[in-house]
Write a structure and sequence with these properties.
By secondary structure, this protein is an alpha+beta fold. The chain is built from 3 helices and 5 strands, in the order βαβαβββα. The chain has 2 domains: 100 residues, Glutaredoxin (3-Layer(aba) Sandwich); 30 residues, no CATH class.
């Protein structure tokens, strides 16, 4: 997995963003993470990259915090957190984004027959299908020890 941090020159949150990315990956149990920092220094580069402000986290090239129709430019970015707007996303939100990206990656590898083979362990066959079990059908599986597990 690759985490790319897009930052403007002198971004006051760049160091914190790098530390946050490392900690989120550690907590998510993702060992094969490459983290790189890319400085976006011109408006043209910002437009070309779809840069929504500094710092922007790209996980395997995708901004997990993207908001449709966000303007691009050389600016600071703010994230909605439980305590209000902040210069960095919450650790739990970034960790969840990394877990989702890792699961999607494992699923793609499984689909190609090159995967780890365990990405759907414990889930019913419909959970691994293209249509899946349907919205909300997996419910609280994995978060509630009393949960009987997913059904389709």
């Amino acid at each position: 997995m690759e985490i790319e941090l897009l930052v403007v020159p002198g971004c006051p949150n760049a160091t914190g963003a790098h530390a946050l990315a490392r900690e989120a990956a550690r907590q998510a149990g993702i060992a094969d993470v490459v983290t790189k920092v890319t400085v976006v220094g011109t408006d043209q580069a910002a437009r070309r990259r779809g840069f929504a402000g500094s710092p922007t986290f790209l996980v395997d090239g995708i901004d997990p915090f993207a908001v449709p129709a966000t303007a691009t430019g050389l600016t600071c970015r703010v994230y909605s957190t439980a305590t209000g707007l902040a210069g960095l996303p919450e650790l739990a939100e970034l960790r969840a984004a990394l877990v989702r990206a890792d699961a999607a990656r494992a699923s793609e590898e499984d689909d190609r027959g090159t995967g780890r083979g365990a990405s759907h362990a414990g889930l019913p066959p419909c959970a691994a299908s293209e249509t899946g079990p349907g919205p909300g059908r997996l419910g609280r599986y994995g978060t509630d020890p009393r949960s009987p597990g997913p059904t389709c």
